[in-house]
Amino acid sequence: MPELPEVETIARKLRNVLLKRRFETMTVLWAKTIANINPEDFIQTMQGATVNDIRRRGKYLIFDLDNNKDLVIHLRMSGKFSMHPAGAGFEDNKHTRVRMLLDNELVLNYIDQRKFGRFYLVDDANTITSKLGPEPLSSQFSVEWLKQGLSQRTAQLKTLLLNQSFIAGLGNIYASEALWDARLHPCRISSTISRKEATALHRAIRNALKKGLKNMGTTLGTGHANFYSVGRRSGRNSDQLNVFRRTGQPCPRCKKTIERIIVGQRSTHICTTCQKLED
DNA sequence: AGTCTTGTTCGACT
DNA sequence: CAGTCGAACAAGAC
Predict the structure, then answer these.
(1) Most exposed: A13, A40, A53, A121, by fewest CB within 10 Å?
(2) Residues with CB under 7 A from strand B
């Protein structure tokens, strides 16, 4: 569930608390979380390493370590972090997969109910992130680039927006919201998108992400699998969603009922009045 | 027990 | 060879 705004919110929070901190004792409670090496080697390399910087690329978190390694983390559906003072009484979350004791007597827990999140310890984060498309909030992502990219492909619009090698960081929530804002049907074939429509989509993508960022992410409901920044801090964006998971409710623009359809095997929410399929 | 959830990867096909 | 799309997968909640 964490998409660009959620991962960025977490990165900012972690930057505040983790910069220049050193990892002391590491515990891996679910081995598969460590994706590319065995947990013993992971622990060996992580213990004693200091965090020089924390970045985000697409939906990946990148810890820049002082031992010339990068810790690259993908939260997938339910990965999250919480911090608490070291010592008994705080370590009771049964979904904790990695426990990291810091040099300031705080513990950073990686908690992941569904166990899909992955840690990669690599020499250079680029080995993982190089296949990603441009950052939608960077100047690289221009109207011109988007128009060009759409015209060279023939995929359904929403499927293409979810393709991380086309554009990085969009997931089901923000892709759906952007398409609604731009009044584009998710099943439109990308090559048929006009310049005017591409301009609207470009603006809509940026606006959806910026709004998500401003609201510190989208937390849906209160379950364990939902997004929380760090600890139990939830985002405020869910109240302001226009279509996502609002089946049966009125479209905020035209009041027609929002419908749920499946596009590229994913549930998608649209207003059939605002988002027409004719070319 | 079966269905649903999401992001990503795999493999078949064009 | 590259793009597209559907199947499969990760694991747990209900």
Answers:
(1) A40
(2) A 1, 3, 58-59, 74, 76-77, 114, 116, 162, 164, 171-173, 265-267
